[in-house]
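User: quick one, sequence for these C-alpha cells?
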C-alpha cells in the first residue's frame, strides 16, 4: 500500500470525509476517493469502513497515532 493510500485511510479512521481529507492533504476529493478505492482493492474489501478495520487490525494505520 502506498503512503498516500495509508494516509487517506488514516484520515477516514478519524471521521474525515473525502472533501475534508482533500483539504488537509492538498488533493481533490475525487483523488482522495481514488486512493481509498485502491486501498480497498489491495486489502480485499469493498467499503472504506472495512478498509479502516483491516488497516487497524493489520497495523497499517493507527488512528490514535499523531
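Assistant:
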Amino acid at each position: 500500500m502506498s503512503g498516500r493510500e495509508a494516509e487517506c485511510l488514516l484520515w477516514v479512521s478519524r471521521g474525515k470525509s473525502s472533501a475534508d481529507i482533500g483539504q488537509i492533504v492538498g488533493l481533490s476529493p475525487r483523488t482522495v476517493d481514488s486512493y481509498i478505492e485502491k486501498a480497498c482493492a489491495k486489502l480485499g474489501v469493498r467499503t472504506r469502513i472495512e478498509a479502516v478495520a483491516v488497516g487497524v487490525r493489520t497495523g497499517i494505520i493507527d488512528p490514535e497515532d499523531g
